[in-house]
Amino acid sequence: MSPSRRAQRVAPIPSTDLGQLRTRVCALAENRPAVYRMTDAAGRIIYVGKAKRLRTRLLTYFRAEYPDDKAARILYAASDITWDYVPSEFAAYLGELRQIRRHRPHFNYRGNVTRRSVLIKMSGGPAPRIYAGGTVSRDDLRCYGPFHSLGRTLEAVRTLNDLLGIRDCRATMPIVFAGQRDLFDQPRQAACLRHEFGFCCGPCAGFVTEREYRRKIDTAAAFLEGRTIQPMDRVVAAMQEAADAGHYELAARWREKFEQLEWLLGATSRARSAVDLLTFVYHDPGTYGDDQAYVVVQGVVRASAPFPATPGEREAFKGVVAGEAERPKPAPGPLPMDAIDEILLLMAWFRAHPDALRRTTPLEEWAAA
User: Fold this and answer.
1) What is the CATH number of the domain that holds 62?
2) Which range marks the domain in which residue 101 is found?
3) What is the pLDDT of residues 32-80, one digit of tens each?
4) Distance between alpha carbon 160 and the CA centroid of its chain, in Å?
């Protein structure tokens, strides 16, 4: 261990009096669901968290070892802790997510980069890429999913890219389309072997026009959205041709590609259906009897209110539900980029709490009641 590291362990300097802060937490924090915020000396929010039992959760920060534990590092950077009580654990999850999205705290974004699901993403730029992963970057323009198997998703996306000739190189690869002036008197050579093998149309070396490449991307998007099965047509034709010629090993390889695309077609359809099914009124029982009603449409909470108990409250809430039920449903397409986190959160919640589904009511049924 280096001397500086040893000194840091022995004499860490917190930004505030931790003993006084702990005393305030013990005196004021209750063991109720809550969303809490850590702020620095300038009043900036550096971390947002949730708790099913607030006091118990906050006191764990004071028992964490600095600098090994992230909780201790957050606490030593904080000058104050504030919180808002919420009706339930579900409300705490939702409140934490929305506050993180609003404030973008340093410790939330630097320390939490993993996701629970796999997404197929389409990047922006002159020559978009299609690839799979668990995080959404600033360059991503469309996302599809979520999917459960990273391995199968990666294989299927690679097959889709190979069949359509879509590049899978790094995002910073210089792109030069056919017909651009700087190609004159320059040798054209693709940056990787995928072009030589016929798996990439070579947008890095001017082997394809921008319009032709965009057409390939549009075909891939249509396939992922269930509007075409065009890549599968080519696979079926090649598989049949190889079988008729007696090239059975080649036919078997084409069969594998067909199965991968077939799986991807089914997986994207199931993912769209799973999002559509997250459309209902959810009756969430509060920890202390303060029940809430949430209007959920395709995995996004559109409205919430205390669960109506009187005829007047029910009539008012019925109007809110009817308004959401009458909205036209969007055409099948990618996930809304600004709501992906919330959709994944609600999917995870109802998957982990199947009993909560018994407290849901279709919008139409509630509006017609």
Assistant:
1) 3.40.1440.10
2) 3-111
3) 999 999 999 999 999 999 999 999 999 999 999 998 899 999 999 999 9
4) 22
